[in-house]
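G.,

No rush on this.
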Amino acid sequence: MGSQNIKYTFSGHDSFQCRQLWLKKGYDYVVENRNFNDEDAVVQLGVGKNMVSSIRFWLKAFNIVDNNDLPTEFGKRLFDDEIGYDPFLEDEASLWLLHFNLVKTGFASIYSIIFNEFRKEKLFFNKETYVNYLKRIAESDSDLNFNENTVAKDFNVFTNLYKNESKGKNIEDSFSGILSEIELLSTAGKGKDEQFYIENSERDNLSEYVVLYAILENVDYGNSISLNSLEFNINSPGSIFALNRLGLMNKISEIVSEFDGITFTDQAGIKELQFKNKVEAFKVLDKYYGK
């Protein structure tokens, strides 16, 4: 599983996937210095008791608040009423940013595991194949405390978060997962035979600004980054956004044409993205959102 001493978390959401308005609601709640353990949290947030702890879980998982329930830089920049890029998540780029932070933060383990590793080994999968995969890892990784039931519930939450059920249904349905619109998770088969897959594709609906932000936010990347590592590394754009090579090349050429000081070289078969001087990650988003 790569890095040492990972803390795995497969619970905390009380089996609720993150709903459309929860992050904004939760963000406003912590900005008012309120505490999730307060007696009136249920009233203030307008949800049931279990949902209060679920909202708190998702705020951490999406990197909106830190471990002390204080807003992160990313949380402020996205949800703040004054300076926020897109407090009500009307721009699809905001959903891609949330997806990126969910995987990269690793607070909820399943997202990093599925996007960075599992889907590369299993193109088609279901709850059973995922549980078995983790079981196998748990045998050689003592940090992974494995409870089959918990992991199975966690998988259901994952599919509900990404599954796009909106075909012909009311998109405003507050029960659909917050990331269903970016269409990363596809299904094949029905009922017992249902399989899920995350196919690498061009992702024309993914902004190159989000891809550049993701590259700049990756501490493993220096000023010269090989195409291979952009495609395959843990938390690379290829891994997190399920981009195929053509899609990645398209995003790179868009980035290079829009930003000074960034070039793509191909010398003696070594393809690299190169930064003369790295721009600050949020400056890229400032530009995208016109801030």
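When you get to it, here's the other one too:
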Amino acid sequence: MPNKKYKIAVIQLNLNDIAENNLKKCISWVRDAANLGAEVISLPELHSSHYFCQSEDVDNFALAEPLYSTSFIAFSALAKELGVVIIVPFFEKRMAGIYHNSAYIIDTDGSEAGLYRKMHIPDDPHFYEKFYFTPGDLGFKTIPTQKGKIGTLICWDQWYPEAARLTALQGAEVLFYPTAIGWHPAEKDEYGVNQHGAWMSVMKGHAVANGVYVAAANRIGLEQYLPDTAGIQFWGSSFIAGPQGEILAQASHDKEEILIAEVDLDLQENVRQNWPFFRDRRIDAFGDITKRAID
């Protein structure tokens, strides 16, 4: 029988360090989350390095790793040891010239339950991801694990209701969003409150519209690795929301933290029975959603 209740965690970290140190830090924090009772644990986006997409520099491709190498080996052993599911976002080298922003979903026995490749790739000032990442080609997927059915999307995917919907329609109980988002320091005073509010609002909306739990794992800290630039101040504020958009746990803007909340499948079913949005979808009228614009 599937678990009716299980505990999920997101880990909020400063990851402005070399890969070896970031790996040690992440392993330690995953252990701490498991010791607190977490059964499904997510790290932030691109866990093994600083956020290198602030510039377009071919030297940064050296940060990528082939499938099933360093990150997978380490977290596969850890998941098996602890008996937990771990979501491990990483910079994937698929082959020469093709790289992805990806995430392993590693099951409790250390096996790969699934692989997700980020579908929506941004290109904004100091978020130059299109230079590095080929758009994902695995689609939106719900991954069955020994703890529950989970969907993993990544950062820029947060803004797209279609991604959340297609994942939820496959049975996802939780949508995890490993994230690396922050403020340009010069813009924070003028735009910071609205930017952060929009980020939270859109994901809470995904929770409500789909009757799912949503969990976002962001990084923190000012990452100013380029000379003569202000860098990016990652805003933290990781959170877990329930199927009515209610905030179950939320982190600070500037501290490393573990957030834990309980997924209650009876509650989720009750919410969907009372707010039957899936029942009332007019799928006969949605054909134009696949068009770039309706001219």
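Residues 150 and 172 are 5 Å apart (CA to CA). The chain has a mean pLDDT of 97.

Enjoy the weekend,
O.
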